[in-house]
Design brief:
- The chain is an all-alpha fold.
- The protein has 21 helices and 2 strands.
- Strands 1-2 form a two-stranded antiparallel ribbon.
- Strand 1 and strand 2 form a beta hairpin.
- The longest helix is centred in the C-terminal third of the chain and has 26 residues.
- The radius of gyration is 22 Å and the shape is globular.
- The model has no long low-confidence stretch (mean pLDDT 88).
């Protein structure tokens, strides 16, 4: 059992070093070793979650191809430039709600250079808004009605006797994560030295080439002309989200056969694919441009990662469920909240909140942990900021022309550690209290 666990952890570790598609593909090697080498019965691949991701990122990718994403970014930029002195609080709110709307944190790459540009021109240390804004872009995943983590949580919970809907999850996760983000932003407000007192930054300014690089660029989307079709695509996308939330809140509206209503995972797929088709027909959205866009491509990478990781994890845990229950039951019975630590540590390894939910939530239910407790610790499935190898964090470091947002000499002393830990801990505590209060 221990040797096979090392195979699982080894596959995840090697995959995380290569990143991208490799995380899912190398998990396949671990799966092959468990099945063909050790004779374990294969688990079940997470097809429902994969189909939801495909539908959601296809719809979001088509909206991006129509120019709709540019309009959303432009709206966010106007607000940020109107209140530049509050950017440490407003930037994470913008990246958070962009992720909530679109269901993926990879929509923020256009906004990050703008955040840095506004901070520099206001004389604010860019590390302050950039660090927490990158965290916020991933925290929003557990607050999005079309994100795989939320839909998988609802589906697995319903299967295990905890009847909960997507709106009910969001009623806990959204206020909890907003509290966590504001706590992280408050802690970042005076973080580090001001630019005029930072000797490293001031030394860079004395070099003409560096000064031109830092202050010579002007990142903005305000000069873009947004066509009417782009705005129409955003309206279609928002309407699709409203339809999904409506069906989730009022299940009686769903068609049923033999007394069983249409499942929400199928509702999301049908609505998202239909919305994508409407954008193609009425918004001049190019499917070829959508496939080439970062939203669709990052979504497909997530599909492969979740496919390999979740299947590998399910194969291992399903074969050792009895042993896991024997080892962990006493601990989680006495301290049920401790499952949050397990979720967090697994997330550090596999860089996917959806994969953590799919792989670990069935195990948590099998250990006898109550549904409200698991809802309360849902924010803890975000831990991959701990090791700064996630694309959004690396991109944020590169976007910060001031050089204040850093990875750090010792790897773990990076710009995302402090806001990430504060946000996840605060969000989990608040979510736990809200879940205990309501459910």
């Amino acid at each position: 059992m221990i040797i096979q666990l090392l195979v699982v952890l080894g596959a995840l570790w090697v995959g995380s070093r290569y990143g991208s598609l490799a995380l899912g593909a190398i998990s396949g090697i671990g799966l092959a070793l468990l099945v063909f080498g050790f004779g374990l019965k294969p688990g079940t691949p997470p097809t429902d979650v994969i189909y939801i991701i495909i539908a959601a990122v296809t719809c979001a990718g088509i909206m991006q191809a129509s120019g709709g994403m540019d309009w959303l970014i432009q709206i966010a930029e106007k607000m940020l430039r109107k209140h530049p002195d509050r950017i440490t609080f407003l930037a994470p709110l913008c990246t958070f709600f962009l992720t909530v709307l679109v269901g993926t944190g990879h929509v923020v790459y256009t906004l990050m250079p703008i955040v840095c540009d506004i901070a520099l021109k206001k004389g604010i240390r860019p590390e302050r808004p950039c660090g927490v804004a990158s965290i916020a872009s991933q925290v929003g995943i557990t607050c999005s009605p079309i994100a795989a983590a939320v839909v998988a949580f609802v589906s697995i919970s319903n299967t295990n006797g905890f009847d909960i809907t997507i709106p009910q999850v969001l009623m806990v996760s959204i206020p909890a994560c907003l509290c966590g983000l504001m706590a992280a932003a408050a802690a970042s407000y005076h973080r580090g030295l001001d630019l005029d007192k930072d000797p490293v930054f001031q030394a860079r300014l004395k070099i003409p080439e560096q000064r031109d690089y830092i202050y010579g660029n002007n990142a903005t989307t305000l000069d873009k002309v947004i066509p009417v079709e782009a705005k129409r695509a955003v309206y279609i996308f928002l309407a699709a989200l409203c339809v999904i939330v409506l069906f989730a809140a009022v299940p009686s509206l769903l068609p049923s056969w033999d007394g069983k209503a249409l499942k929400m995972n199928l509702v999301i797929q049908i609505v998202m694919i239909s919305a994508a088709a409407l954008m193609i027909i009425f918004c001049k959205a190019s499917p070829k441009k959508a496939v080439a866009g970062p939203v669709w491509q990052s979504g497909m990478v997530a599909v492969v990662a979740i496919y390999g990781i979740a299947w590998l994890a399910d194969t291992y845990f399903s074969n050792y469920m009895g042993e896991m229950q024997t080892m962990l039951t006493d601990i989680v019975r006495q301290y049920p909240w401790s499952i949050a630590i397990v979720f967090f540590l697994v997330s550090v390894l596999i860089n996917s909140q959806g994969a953590v939910v799919v792989a670990m939530l069935p195990l948590a239910y099998s250990l006898g942990i109550a549904g409200p407790v698991l809802l309360g610790v849902l924010p803890s499935v975000y831990g991959y900021f701990f090791i700064p190898n996630y694309p959004s964090d690396i991109a944020t470091v590169n976007f910060d022309r001031s050089g204040t947002t850093v990875i750090g000499k010792y790897l773990l002393n990076h710009s995302f550690m402090m806001p990430g830990l504060i946000c996840v801990c605060t969000s989990t505590i608040v979510a736990y209290l809200l879940s205990m209060l309501f459910y």
